[in-house]
Amino acid sequence: ATDASGADCRPRLPLSFELFPPRTDAAALALGRTIDRLAEVDPAFISVTFGAGGSSRARSLTVLRYMLEHTHVEPMAHLTCVGSSHAEANRLVREFLDAGITSFLALRGDPPANADPDAGIGDLGSAAELVQLIHRVQEEREPFGQVGVPGNPGASRIKARPRPERVAVATFPTGHPRSRNLGHDVDTLLAKEIAGANLAITQLFWRADDYLGFVERARAGGVMIPILPGIMPVTNPARLGRLTELTGVEPPAELAIELEIEPDAAAQAELGIAFATRLAAEVIAGGAPGLHLYTFNRHEAVLDVVDRLGLRTDRFADERNTAR
Ligand code: FAD
Fold this sequence. Notes:
alpha/beta; 16% strand; binds flavin-adenine dinucleotide
């Protein structure tokens, strides 16, 4: 796919990144620089995680607002509904829409480990219900119907139904820790699509076949929405251990051993970056519709992966060429 001048004119594969809200002022300052660097590769969106139970609400909003005010990047807010009443979830969605956020990753979230098992998980039992709520709140704010036409008092037109830009959901190629089997994960994803989700982002996985096989099963099960592979370059053994604990997804023994026995920090980082690059190249070759990179709030490793895959573009090149 080249144009008359021989330049590659294939559309670039969409990139996206995930960040978490910083806990200190110093971390917030560093995150601003990270966001600026990530914005340079023109991602389709950058998502910001949300502490289940709302513990990070204000900090998540600050990061999302930074993106709106200082970059051209579309901010995506993770929202969780576990433990919330309908009224609380409604208020939360309104607050983010009021702040100008129109893209969401709708999650159920996990109840705190020490939660009273009799306390229940709130009014919304699943991410699918939160997806529906996001659409409902958006529609209530800007109802569908006849509106006047500015400058033409007698006329009216049908107002297009406003939709949030993206309502994404999570999916688990190697199975959610609580799901019965992979068929259950496909069914859950289908339920979220039927509820109105228009994008899925996967949990970490370590083998291309896990992702590609899951996508195949999801398509056979009727899922139509794009399923973005979520990949993280893991640059040290401690982080790999923590990730395994958090996600329950077992990494390949050879990666764990190689990271463990490598004494040099730079060489450890190289192992993780090379592994993530290979995995990303395999899922892209298998037809992945984009690449979602978990950043751990650092830009260096993920941008290294982007560069090694040849996915960096100069977003202003087109504008400069047209201006010439
Ligand atoms: P759902 O889609 O409602 O359910 C997910 C799966 O769990 C389904 O297979 C469902 O059947 C199964 N399941 C759930 N509960 C049970 C049960 N009691 N018994 C049997 N099966 C059950 N968490 C956060 O707190 N904040 C974040 O910002 C965040 N971001 C994430 C981003 C991504 C891309 C991913 C993959 C996960 C993220 N999580 C986050 C973690 C997520 O909240 C948990 O994995 C949670 O357990 C499931 O949320 P869900 O939205 O997938 O729920």
